[in-house]
């Protein structure tokens, strides 16, 4: 197959590309320039798309003996990921930019261009397993559950997954680093990137303040309606947040307060006791079925509501265009704007049944 290997400059994408070459595919490497003003150096594990990252990816491609290109996707990334991120926070939701990047950049913009150029598949260093079962793609959790990225890939369609390759799905991260060393890849010990790639200093609140400015509102006790303070904008908060609320006076019972709800129109941030974060039903719109098969009846499954953690056995149904998910155990801190991903437990690795964007909870 003709394979386009997306090479970020990190160890995972480097080993994924190396494995694609070793498997006999005709591989071309590409680094996506996603920043209009790329930095010259990374700051430890923060940041991405720097000049250093592009150079690291090129050196790996040279060692593998494959062609290498840098494609400028900065404008598309800004529109589809960064601006979406800002708009979602302004609307009182909590987005996942990694999920949006996979959906709109790596497996829409990049894949569309790859197919137009005659490639059969896009290869990435994601930790997830992918197979073809009865002619349909089947997305599963990674063998390395600590690195599993099936959650942020669950918004991909069956058509997109049919042109995807995840060579690291059956591997542990520790083994990938060993393999990189054995292959002589200089990125073998390069730190993993974390946090939000386009906010390299990790200050999400400061980034949003710079984009949205001040939008003053009130911090309100959900039980009594009492005004506890003021804030600079609902975009500085997320459901389930405990720290950094800016409330001076303790609660009457001395217990911590948590963000319960955001009201972007009125500017109110409602806070209260942790028990009020309990969620017994999740409504999600924009459902995606990675296998191409929608739910046609209620199913028992495992629901995950955050990229790391937030899982519970649940019953899910597809009702009037929405996913309705009822966890068997109360979940807390379920934020609108995040994805809920449904898994079917399986000994060979949990299978992704579907996903949707959380629009409401009860």
TrEMBL record:
Enzyme active site: 101 (nucleophile), 197 (cysteine persulfide intermediate)
CDD domains in UniProt: MnmA_TRMU-like
Keywords, sorted A to Z: ATP-binding, Cytoplasm, Disulfide bond, Methyltransferase, Nucleotide-binding, RNA-binding, Transferase, tRNA processing, tRNA-binding
Xref: InterPro entries: MnmA-like (IPR004506), MnmA-like_C (IPR046885), MnmA-like_central (IPR046884), MnmA-like_central_sf (IPR023382), Rossmann-like_a/b/a_fold (IPR014729)
Subcellular location, record wording: Cytoplasm
Ranges of residues in domain tRNA-specific 2-thiouridylase MnmA-like central: 206-272
Binding site for ATP: 6-13, 32, 125
Any Pfam family hit: tRNA_Me_trans_M
Key word S-adenosyl-L-methionine present: no
Gene Ontology terms for molecular function: ATP binding; methyltransferase activity; tRNA binding; tRNA-uridine 2-sulfurtransferase activity
Enzyme Commission number, as recorded: 2.8.1.13
Record domain tRNA-specific 2-thiouridylase MnmA-like C-terminal: where: 280-358
Reactions it catalyzes: S-sulfanyl-L-cysteinyl-[protein] + uridine(34) in tRNA + AH2 + ATP = 2-thiouridine(34) in tRNA + L-cysteinyl-[protein] + A + AMP + diphosphate + H(+)
GO cellular component, one term: cytoplasm
Record site: Interaction with tRNA: 126, 338
Annotated region (Interaction with tRNA), positions in chain: 147-149
Chief place where the protein resides: cytoplasm
GO biological process: methylation; tRNA wobble position uridine thiolation
Function: Catalyzes the 2-thiolation of uridine at the wobble position (U34) of tRNA, leading to the formation of s(2)U34.
Family designation: Belongs to the MnmA/TRMU family.
Protein's name according to its UniProt entry: tRNA-specific 2-thiouridylase MnmA
Species annotation: Actinokineospora alba
Name of encoding gene: mnmA
